[in-house]
């Protein structure tokens, strides 16, 4: 006998099919558009980096230069490739000359399109080979050093100073952490450029930059070699620069990225069109790089009630799964999120948490599910908080979660101290060790409280997905069906960065990525087909 909930497999299939149609409908719409962030990512993958004399990142300078000449509907790649061919220089030099106003790309004669595309493919293969080599490094180190067992112990560092983050990250790894996440500086997701170089002053976290990624990767590799255990590095691939950060993370061998299709829309008020386009290209890169994404459904329960809104978490997991599949991301890299957020004063609250966690585990059996600790109902009572975290850890190991983001007993008081993190790791280690195979020994009572709760959540999630399919995802977001947060199709930050593709649009990296992950070329969906409500 298996210790599983008896769920309706037909309902699961129907929910997955509805989510697939929702995602495919939006993907057809995405196929007709690009964004300034996608185009800057193309440049970064071509090797463009650095800043101009005023400190503006060169990818921004170059994209703005092309857009001012009404040429971004063609994609930035043809402009840079053409300039390189005409001037006999590499993309970095093109960017530097544009940054010093010594060339105007709009005045150069155009090479034949076939020649431009041949050079574009050459550069795309070179850029993707750099990512492939970093992925192979990870695979070699995992084979050589090994790693911790799932659920991975996931902790955060958030000093604002990358050098101090490196010290704390090494300390966390020595204490037993398997994943170290560098919390991003407050508000970075809302700036439409990526800061350059090493940073030592952040608020509530540290800026995500390529140099900071390199520093942390080096620090964790050093302690991993000492400990004989690979330590995974996590950062935030979200916000207005989502695909750019995916590219930088891939090039610096990050292992985990916070990357949700809907999080920026709901919780950062980033325009839904911008976010949905950006997430697609970012996930193609993450998939090719072997990076595990973490989605943000846990945040739904900070704005909505965990009892009443549990089905929205499951519905979003289904949607995130399907967007990831369309981008070529395999299930073993989908860290779908959920959270332990029941009010601790609620009778049988733990049973409901168990139902949600077990249900997610069964519905997404190959996904390394990311389980988030209690935060909403942490009170500042450190003793009660430590018990809440212990209950969370018990649910995590019982249901076989993939990634356990450890809670801190001082969660509601201040940024946790180093010793708070050590206590959190000790708590999880104790429970994981003592209850390692509990899930194999305990059977769920047929039609009992846990099973019936899971069935109820699944049925509501299916009904919700079928409704979203009928009205379209954009309308669902406008109505506030997810997380009780309403967003408009044309509201939010970043809409000005959305660009409709012209007939000659060219992104060599997307073409090559789609080949490598076995995806068919997109065919633009009819914008007036049933369920498409973008107008």
Describe the 3D structure.
Strands 7-6-5-4-3-2-10-9-8 form a nine-stranded parallel β-sheet. It has a two-stranded antiparallel ribbon with strand order 1-11. It has a domain at 33-124. Mean pLDDT is 94; it is low at 523-535. Helix 1 (9-30) runs parallel beside helix 18, helix 7 (162-175) runs parallel beside helix 8 (210-227) and helix 9 runs parallel beside helix 11 (272-289). It has helices at residues 9-30, 36-45, 58-68, 76-87, 91-99, 113-145, 162-175, 210-227, 242-251, 263-268, 272-289, 300-303, 310-326, 349-363, 382-398, 418-434, 438-441, 449-471, 473-479, 508-516; strands at 33-35, 152-157, 179-182, 232-236, 256-258, 292-294, 334-335, 337-339, 370-372, 403-405, 498-500. With 535 residues, it is α/β, with parallel strands linked by helices. The protein contains 20 helices and eleven strands.
């Amino acid at each position: 006998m298996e210790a599983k909930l008896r769920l309706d497999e037909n309902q699961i299939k129907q929910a997955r099919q509805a989510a697939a149609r929702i995602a495919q409908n939006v993907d057809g719409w995405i196929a007709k558009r690009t964004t300034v962030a996608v185009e800057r990512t193309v440049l970064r993958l071509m090797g463009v980096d650095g800043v101009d004399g005023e400190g503006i990142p060169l990818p921004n300078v170059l994209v703005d230069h092309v857009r001012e000449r009404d040429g971004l509907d063609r994609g930035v790649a043809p402009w840079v490739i053409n300039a390189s061919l005409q001037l006999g220089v590499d993309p970095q030099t093109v960017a530097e000359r544009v940054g010093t106003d010594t060339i105007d790309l709009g005045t150069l004669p155009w090479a034949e399109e076939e020649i431009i595309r041949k050079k574009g493919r050459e550069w795309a293969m070179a850029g993707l080979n750099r990512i492939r080599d970093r992925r192979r490094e990870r695979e070699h180190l995992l084979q050589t050093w090994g790693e911790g067992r799932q659920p991975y112990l996931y902790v955060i560092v958030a000093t604002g100073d990358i050098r101090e983050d490196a010290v704390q990250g090494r300390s966390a790894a020595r204490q037993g952490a398997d994943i170290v996440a560098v919390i991003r500086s407050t508000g970075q997701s809302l700036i439409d450029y990526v800061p350059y170089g090493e940073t030592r002053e952040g608020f509530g976290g540290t800026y995500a930059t390529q140099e900071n990624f390199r520093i942390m990767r080096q620090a964790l590799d050093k302690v991993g070699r000492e400990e004989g255990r690979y330590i995974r590095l996590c950062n935030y691939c979200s916000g207005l620069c989502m695909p750019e950060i995916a590219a930088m993370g891939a090039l610096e061998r990050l292992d985990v990225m916070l990357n949700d299709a809907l999080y920026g829309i709901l919780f950062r008020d980033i325009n839904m069109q911008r976010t949905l386009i950006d997430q697609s290209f970012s996930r193609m890169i993450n998939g090719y790089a072997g990076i595990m994404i973490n989605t943000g459904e846990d945040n739904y329960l900070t704005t909505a009630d965990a009892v009443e809104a549990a089905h929205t978490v499951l519905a979003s997991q289904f949607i995130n799964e399907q967007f990831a599949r369309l981008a070529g991301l395999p299930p073993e890299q989908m860290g779908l999120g959920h959270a332990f957020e029941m009010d601790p004063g609620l009778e049988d609250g733990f049973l409901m948490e168990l139902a949600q966690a077990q249900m997610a585990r069964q519905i997404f059996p190959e996904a390394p599910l990311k389980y988030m600790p209690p935060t909403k109902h942490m009170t500042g009572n450190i003793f009660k908080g430590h018990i809440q975290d212990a209950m969370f850890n018990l649910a995590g190991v019982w249901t076989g979660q993939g990634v356990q983001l450890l809670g801190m007993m001082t969660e509601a008081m201040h940024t946790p101290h180093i010793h708070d993190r050590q206590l959190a790791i000790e708590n999880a280690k104790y429970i994981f060790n003592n209850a390692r195979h509990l899930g194999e020994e305990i059977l769920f009572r047929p039609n009992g409280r846990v099973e019936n709760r899971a069935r109820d959540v699944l049925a509501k999630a299916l009904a919700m997905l079928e409704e979203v399919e009928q009205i379209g995802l954009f309308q669902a977001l406008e109505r506030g069906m997810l997380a009780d947060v309403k967003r408009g199709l044309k509201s939010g930050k970043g809409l000005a960065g959305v660009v409709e593709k012209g007939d000659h649009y060219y992104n060599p990296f997307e073409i090559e990525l789609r080949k490598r992950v076995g995806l068919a070329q997109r065919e633009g969906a009819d914008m007036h087909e049933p369920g498409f409500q973008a107008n």
